[in-house]
Amino acid sequence: MRELGVTLRFHAGDVRPVGTLVEDRGEVWFAYDPAFIAGGLEISPIRLPLLGSQLRAHRANAGAPIPGVFNDARPDGWGLKLLHRTFAARGRAAASVSPLEELAFLGEHTMGALTFAPVTGPTGELDDAVELAALAAHAQAVWDDRAEEVLPELLRVGGPSGGARPKALVGLRADGGPGVRHGEGALPDGWEAWLVKFPTSTDDRDAGRREAVWLEMAGAAGIDVPASRILHLPGVGDAFAVRRFDRGADGRRFHVLSGAGALDADFRVPVADYEHLLRATHHICRGDHAQVLACFRLAAFNVASVNQDDHLKNVAWLLGPEGRWRLAPGFDLTYAPRPFGERWTSVGGERREVSRAHLLGLAASVGIKPVTARRVLDEVVAATSSVGARLAAAGCDSPVSREAARGVARATARVGAG
């Protein structure tokens, strides 16, 4: 049997014991700490509400072997590859490593604000400089399976991360000045926590700059987006960097709950509709209509910009110490067509040729006024109509970028028609 203590760590002076995760012979339970229940803060309002401090059995599924809110703290894709390579070096096959063992390895070095103890992985803060180009080159070798060994430094900066692409959690200067530091723990004054996505051997040359264009375009469409930069890494290529929204000044952390985590869902199975996400937003954000409208705007932008990789891990909500939920800033926004043009998350049941009528129907299903919905769609269309000029200004001229411009023009026309 394995037990993990779960803590919500907003900052060094605000650390709240949440409860205990228990795993025994493949079965998982969770119990809230009575003091946490008394505080009234919900970390997962839909699937794990504050209903008492008794042990609750979790119904495991392929996408949520442990309760979804804690599964969000586990890495997936790239981070999981690094962790499993590390366990393999210790003689442990990936299939033998349980989710609780992965969380114990990460300890406090998690995305979001949930932390876990006892810790079995590396401890202590890292505050030295990072040679990002060398780290990116090693990441490419691991990604391509040209290197079995994972350098400890790459594990520390990449292990907690999610998503398929190789990435690193680092500190960058707020003023854009030179230098890169390890991004976990308290950063010195003038430094901020950022996430850097490294280019891979399968990317076209514009991939990083194109993602920056999409984030800029999303901002023009009225979506809350974090700051971003392009980092030119000698011998590697252009890396896309984005400021982390789960970290604030003075080492503050924010709790993050993804759509998959909120619903205990497998994000790799296309079963969700945006109506589910809009209704989840209404519930999680306690009826805050502005947050529901923000989620609708995100849905419209994903449709118009051909971001079809809109699975349940790519939408999230944030919670701060004051207890107010809000939709997270837009992230993983880029040109991402899928096979047969079928997006992960449908709109009114439609996954391929989503039109203005589908989006207006979505808005009506959750009580968004038609005049408001049409205004949002028009603002999104005004932003995505500029895709060609924005790509050209960023120097994006690869075949993928040219096809992206054509695809967005077609999708934008469907959203703008009528």
Q: Report the helical percentage.
A: 25-40%
Number of helices: 14
Structural class by helix and strand composition = alpha+beta
Number of strand segments? 13
Main beta sheet: strand number and arrangement? 5 strands, antiparallel
Termini separation comes to 60 Å
What characteristic shape results from the CA principal axes?
A: globular
Mean pLDDT across every amino acid position: 92
Strand content: 15-25%
Weakly predicted, low-confidence segments: none
Tell me the domain tally. 3
Radius of gyration: 21 Å
Give, in order, the helices and strands: EEEHEHHHEHHEEEHEEEHHHEEHHHH
Strand order of the largest sheet: 4-3-2-1-5
Topology of this structure?
Blueprint: E1 2-11, E2 14-24, E3 27-32, H1 34-39, E4 56-57, H2 68-71, H3 78-89, H4 99-106, E5 114-117, H5 132-143, H6 152-158, E6 167-173, E7 180-182, E8 191-197, H7 207-220, E9 228-233, E10 237-243, E11 255-258, H8 259-263, H9 274-284, H10 289-304, E12 316-319, E13 325-327, H11 356-365, H12 370-384, H13 387-393, H14 399-416
Helix pairs in contact: 9-10, 10-12, 11-12, 12-14
